[in-house]
Amino acid sequence: MPSQTQEFVTSLQPMQPTESREQLKRNLAAEVLRTAGKFRLAAFGYSMLPTLWPGEILTIQAQTLEQVQPSEVVLFSREGRFFIHRVVRKVKTGPEARLITRGDALPAVDATVFPIEFLGKIVSVRCGDRDIPVPACTPWRRFMGLALTYSVHLRSLGMRWHAWRSAVSRAKSRLATEHT
Fold first, then answer.
1. Residue 180: what pLDDT?
2. Domain of 38: which CATH number?
3. 13 in a domain, yes or no?
């Protein structure tokens, strides 16, 4: 009889969630992308500075890994996290293609992106009231990205400048719509 009581008491303990809230959000976003073909996501982190800033709204479109070209920015999932990095090159080993990616502000490439990790391509960035194509990674952007990565003070100034510039852009956009 004591073993039955022990089983009952054990079953009353709160169940531990198998997935965190953030993991559930990522899984839902990946499923929406697979079924709807497109979704929007806010950028997070500094690895793509100054091309993409934290908080910018990105439009991701479902594509196959074979459709992606070097220099395009992609979304992939690894170790329970989303990564948005630029394709440096495609490699073909055996029957399937793989991607070599890197954040514009990072010095080294990522581990190879496998087809199972690949989710889609970033097709636009929301800028004020319009969507613009993802900017190219010019030598100047690359230099600035590395500088922003290595200097916390420069990154802090850059984040403040970007916030100010975004606020001015939103204000101009509101004024333009009020006068039309």
1. 63
2. 2.10.109.10
3. no
List the beta strands (DSSP E) in the chain. 38-42, 57-61, 73-78, 81-93, 96-102, 118-127, 130-132
Give the pLDDT confidence of 50-88 residue by residue, as tens digits. Answer: 999 999 999 999 999 989 999 999 999 999 899 999 999
Amino acid present at 39: F
- Is 7 among the domain residues? no
Q: Please, are residues 106 and 83 in contact by the beta-carbon 8 Å criterion?
A: no
Report the amino acid identity of residue 61. Answer: Q
What is the pTM (predicted TM-score) of this model?
0.81
Amino acid type, 166: S
Tokens of 134: 């993802």
Instruction: Give the mean pLDDT of 90-106.
Output: 93
Domain total in the chain: 1
Query: What is the rounded distance in angstroms from the CA atom of residue 49 to the CA atom of residue 157?
Result: 13
- The residues near 16 (Cβ < 8 Å, ≥ 6 apart) are none
- Three-state SS at 132: strand
Name the pLDDT band for 11 (thresholds 50, 70, 90).
very low
Q: Would you tell me the crossing angle of helices 152-178 and 139-150 to the nearest 10 degrees? A: 120
Domain annotation covers residue 4:
no
Question: What tokens appear for 156 in the block?
Answer: 């802090």
